[in-house]
Amino acid sequence: MVLMFLNGGGMRGGPLHEQLQGAPLCCVARSAPKYHYFSVGDRFPAMHEGGSGSVVGEVYDLPLAVLRDHLVPVEPPELELGVIELEDGAACLATVLRSSFVDSGELTDITSVGDWRAYLASR
To answer: Which pLDDT band, with edges at 50, 70 and 90, does 106 fall under?
Structure first.
């Protein structure tokens, strides 16, 4: 089991939520204020360390087999697994933007919003 921070389509009501295979929601949380947050072509969000923004997400208690067999295979190639810091200082697994995509023309900085659902609602 791992704690997994989700901040996009894997959250409740999102198109990837079913990939969690019923894993329990532990809490709604925020990341520590040390990330850039991007919309990638308005298809999905991506966090990248080195900023000053905090990101809203949900933390799930996820079996490693579910991560391996269901969640990772549907993640876009721009993302990879990483370990982030939550607002309370705890470490948590998350998908983050690969460094090789930081200069992509598809990125829109949404750090000031810090919430994928709020960003989508504002478009």
So the answer is: very high
What's the whole-number mean pLDDT along residues 70-90? 97
Q: What is the pLDDT of residue 28?
A: 98
**Token digits for 51?**
């900023």
Nearest to 5 by CA among 30, 36, 34, 42: 30
Judge contact between 82 and 44, C-beta under 8 A: no
Q: What is the DSSP string of 28-68?
A: EEEB-S-EEEEEETTTEEEEEESS-B--EEEEEEE-HHHII
Give the burial class of 50: count Cβ atoms within 10 A of its Cβ; 0-12 exposed, 13-18 middle, 19 or more buried: exposed
Report the Cα–Cα distance between both ends of the chain, in Å, rounded: 36
